[in-house]
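Internal ticket #5521
Category: modeling
Description: The requester needs a full-assembly model to guide mutagenesis choices. All entity lines are attached below as received. Residue total reported by intake: 281.
Assigned to: D.W.
Attached entities:
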Amino acid sequence: MAWSASKIFATLIEDALENTAAYNLKTGGDSFKVSLWDNDITPDNTVSTANRAYAAGQWVSAGNEVYDAAEWPVTGQALDSVDLTVAAAVIKWAAANEVSTGTSATLANVYGCMVYDDTVGDSGVCYNYFGGVQSVTDGTFTVVWNSAGIFTLTLT
Amino acid sequence: MAVPILAPAHREWYCPSCHKTDVTTDPHGGKPHTRFHTCPKLGFLTTPMLPVGVKGKLVAHEREDYVGNEIVRVDANNRPVASIVTTRDNGQDCTVFAPTANGRSDVPPARRNAIARAGSATGSG
């Protein structure tokens, strides 16, 4: 199956509403990371809380995660300037674009990223499919988030 | 003792596609960064610039997969763009436009029909 779409993990919402996990997606709240993945995995947003965590389920690093030792390290890059906003019926979670650390990253077969809460159990928040294979050779890898955010909920 | 005040380093940038130039004053405290601009030659996409003196070219790559319900970046011709690759003499950069993971409350027709067929919610009447 491999990658096919970008999704919010359903149990993220469930756990927040049931108060089984205290996520804080606001500015100054939890710390988040964005990790890069190849096409060997099949992301699924209906998995359990345990299986949407980094290093669990589909998100086991060995053979699946794409990283550059220094410039996009294993476990991912830390997200900066995260912010959760609500405008009318649209909830949007955004962050600053993520740039590899340095100018000599080499990353191959990148198909998408998984964003997770590094403060609360490495819990997956969502995954974003890049629409095909991406790579960088001895350069800079930048993830530009859509103006609609990393994830959005439209409650109209 | 006099404390020297160091002026922030200036970096000059250019776009090999539209030839726009710009100058930044190291806004990230020495961290690597790339200047971006809206490039009219690349469908008005958010496009990286190159440091002056570095030769290279920019190529926008269309999304290779079905768009479906994805919220993707599109260019001026409404084509979904997955990334812009900067090819330099000694390497390559990649700027990926990550789609938004989205959840919507509108119910697709197939699910609406399934709900209608299932009848009312459970509970004693």
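Resolution: model delivered.
Comment from assignee: Residues 11 and 24 of chain B are 5 Å apart (CA to CA).
Ticket closed.
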